[in-house]
Amino acid sequence: MTDYLRSEVTKFLLPFSVLSENRKEEFSKEMERTAIFCFAELERAKGGGLILKQPAEKIAFISEFCYPFWLIPWGKLNLLFDGLSTAAYTLTYNVIPDVKSFMGNIERSSKTLETYMAFLADNVNYFQIPTSAKEIVMSGLISDPNFLDEFALYLNEATQVETAMSDLVMLPPTLEESSVTSALHELENLKFTFKEEIGILYESMKLLNNITRNFAKSIKAKIKSIRDEFNKEIKKQEAIVKPKVDRINEEYDEKIAKLTKDIEKQLLPLQKEKVKFEKTKEQTLNRIERYKLEAKSRAASKDAVGERKWKEKISETKKELSDIESKIKDVVRKIKEVEDNKSIETIKLKSEWEAKTKEAKKDLLELEASRDSKIQLHKQEIEKLEKTTSTIIEQINKMAKMRETNIAELEKLGIEQKQKQNTIIYVPLYLVCYSSEKGKRYVVFPPSIVNSISFLTKLKGVLGRAKIKQLLVPRFKTVSSHFYKLPALIERNAVLEREINEKGSRTDILKVESVHEEIRNKLKLLKEEGWLSEKEHENFAEAVSKAYT
How does DSSP classify residue 48? Predict the structure, then answer.
């Protein structure tokens, strides 16, 4: 693992302000401080109030502080730590069952199939759910991806600081390098453990798969041996059974042939009789139709006697037809009885044949049943073995994927590596301290972009908002939000507040009289650019003169 502790720490400073794309005019440090003075004056409570009288505030100091961040190399990344420990990262991860113990138990139980099957049954839910969750709190570590993205972009503008600057307050980190190093060692150890667990998890999956495959192969060999052994006995038995079965088949075939001949003898005269009656029926129907035509003809010629004669013949012929149809039905019934008897006799013969065949094959069938039952038991063994192994491997795979996700989350904690050694990055910001009867109040102005006069700023000025507020606007959303928490930290931490007030008073930009003149000159430039109205220029110039008087 990497040794993060260094005897010397490199320091870098980031710029407070950068020009926007639309600004071509020069913007000096003096103009920057002048703008901050204007902001501070606009933020200052002037006192008054109709109902609740508010005390007026005085500016105790306006100072440029440098907020410290640790930039620590970790693998291919740099981790970012808040030097004042206002942030913290809580890493929560699930503890998985003891993989090494599981591996040892696999190896111990794999000597016989019985012990291995028992092991699988006992551990089918071993990896089903994590045993518990653990938390590691890393003081100062910044993990917000939006903050990291903004800070990574900001870092491209860093310049190395060789010596301290008298006009800046470089706050020393309260988060010591040794604490950062300790946290990183813990993080590195955790990552190492995760990787080790992943390796063992995948190794256990491979081991389970191999052992199960070997046992399955062994069982399949048993199945082949059983099949071969029984097949030899079955072939012997088949040689004994075949002559018996052949005789039974011959008997059956003879009986079926005799039955068929007997039935045909019974059916033949009936079929002939049926054909004869059907032919007679057809002739009778033709006669009836002919008689109808004769009767119709006699009726047409007014021959009543002839018509009656033919109708009588029709009636007599219909009676004949009815007798013929009755005879046909009787023959059909007899034919069906013969065919039904054939079916019944055939079924009886087949049942006898099956019973005799079964009896002849009894020993052979018992051999086949014994073979099939033994093979089926071994196949069920393989199925259970493979199914249980698959269930456990699936659970192990989920655990491994979970650990891979844990590592991926760790590798998202930082930014692309820009420094290969421990480095302090100082971010400048302006801190204004106001004092009144109610106490002290602090306001932060974070790193900003310098704008140029545009239609937008003119419009806002018309609407009643001071245009000067648009000259410097916070450059980063998330980074700025982080710095806006500084006043609350100062109020909570008496030691930090004392240091802030002491150093802020010493580096106050309004403390030196010569700076007042610089601010007045830059106020004129800001007015000329259009950021200040004449009235605003006068008010700010007067405020400079009254500073600390």
Answer: B
pLDDT, tens digit, 9 for 90 and up, residues 112-146 = 999 999 999 999 998 887 678 898 898 999 999 99
Measured between alpha carbons, how far is 434 from 343 in angstroms, rounded to an integer?
Answer: 117
Do 439 and 542 lie in one domain? The reply is yes
Residue 138, classified by CB atoms within 10 Å of its CB into exposed (0-12), middle (13-18) or buried (19+), is buried
Is 42 a member of any domain? yes
Same domain, 355 and 500: no
Q: What is the pLDDT of residues 367-425, one digit of tens each?
A: 889 999 999 999 999 999 999 999 999 999 999 999 999 999 998 888 988 888 899 99
Tokens of 466: 């001071």
270: which 2 tokens?
């009936």
Is residue 468 domain-shared with residue 323, that is, in the same domain?
no
**Which domain covers residue 475, as residue numbers?**
10-96+131-175+417-546
Q: Are strands 423-436 and 132-139 parallel, antiparallel or unpaired?
A: unpaired
pLDDT at 394: 94
- Total domains in the chain come to 2
Residues 422 and 370 in one domain: no
- Indicate the SS3 state at residue 150: helix
Question: Do residues 64 and 167 lie in contact, with contact meaning Cβ atoms separated by under 8 Å?
Answer: yes
Positive or negative torsion for Cα 12, 15, 20, 25: negative
Q: Both tokens of residue 124?
A: 């089918």
Residues ≥6 apart with Cβ < 8 Å to 42:
466, 468, 469
Name residue, tokens 């995948």: 202
* In-domain check, residue 2: no
Instruction: Specify whether 327 is located in the same domain as 440.
Output: no
- Beta-carbon-side half-sphere exposure of residue 51 (alpha carbons within 13 Å): 0
DSSP symbol at 141:
B
Which phi-psi region, left, alpha or beta, contains residue 168 (left: φ > 0; alpha: ψ -120 to 50)? beta
Neighbours of 498 (CB within 10 A): 11
Establish if 393 belongs to a structural domain: no
The secondary structure element, H or E, covering residue 415 is strand 415-416
Q: Are residues 240 and 337 in the same domain?
A: yes
In a domain, 180, yes or no: no
Burial tier of 30 (Cβ tally within 10 Å: 0-12, 13-18, 19+): middle
Residue 456 pLDDT greater than 60, yes or no: no
Q: How far apart are CA 197 and CA 94, in angstroms?
A: 12
At 131-186, the pLDDT tens digits run: 788 988 989 999 999 999 999 999 999 999 887 777 889 999 999 988 998 988 99
Q: Which helix (H) or strand (E) holds 318?
A: helix 304-360
- Beta strand spans in 166-211 (E): 169-170
pTM over 0.85: no
CB atoms within 10 A of CB 7: 6
Strand order in the sheet with 17-19: 17-19, 448-450, 472-474
The residues, any chain, with a CB within 8 Å of residue 190's CB and separated by 6 or more, are 91, 93, 136, 410
Residue the block writes with tokens 């320091």: 11
